[in-house]
What does this fold into?
Amino acid sequence: MPLLQVKKMTHFFSGLRAVHNYDLSIDPGEVRGLIGPNGAGKTTIFNLITGVLTPTEGEITLDGVSLVGLKPHQIASMGIGRTFQNMKLWRHMTVLEHVKMARYSKLSYGLTGAFFGTMKRIREEKENEEHAYHLLELMEAAQFADQNVLNLPYGAQRRVEMARALATDPKILFLDEPTVGMTPEELVDMMNVFRKIREEFGLAIFLIEHRMKVVMELCERIQTLVFGEVIAEGTPDEIQNNPQVIEAYLGKEEVA
Ligand SMILES: Nc1ncnc2c1ncn2[C@@H]1O[C@H](COP(=O)(O)OP(=O)(O)O)[C@@H](O)[C@H]1O
Ligand SMILES: [Mg+2]
It folds into this structure.
């Protein structure tokens, strides 16, 4: 059974059809890419699957369970982690606190027995902190643990955002243009981080990305979206050599 499956999903913004008859099937551990021109509907697809928007039509299932109509936090707790195209980092919080926060909803403070409750709480707090720190190490951002999130270099902020998404133990991670605005050095760090995430967690990734080098290197399969419709789906080789994809997207100047 696929991990994530979408069937015939369509979405209208008033009169505008942003996504049309969209199908998707991602297996556990698979890295899938979604590419296409600006305005093609890529972010809308993420918003539809993660519950930010409700599709006009279509089915969405995670491990066979329907997600349509559920709230974003419910979908997140079922195993879809995501970062945002515009980072939503909290002000006035250290990097470590920021990553710990993401996991709090997963912690259960026992209600029975004040003493044992307290002991359990202290232990869970400690485990949460260790886990958050470990994620920051993996993301090569542990050196920033005690700093304010807003003081970090841009690339490091993106890696903290990813640590935060991982803190919820997702089965699949949605990444919306994670390398946008990065310097070449930051890009190298980010590619290393992607490799580590795959090695350590083996989780599936659904990646929207403009940089072809990143998409082609990371993804096993890629979909090309144009005007809300998938015009091609295949391996990096198949996509790079597909005349329709070159005509509609890869041949354009905006693609690096
Ligand atoms: N909340 C919204 N309300 C109305 N139209 C929207 C909204 N979000 C996106 N759109 C429109 O839907 C289309 C797809 O947008 P988007 O999914 O952001 O594209 P992409 O991420 O591929 O650049 C665009 O025409 C965009 O203007
Ligand atoms: Mg977008």
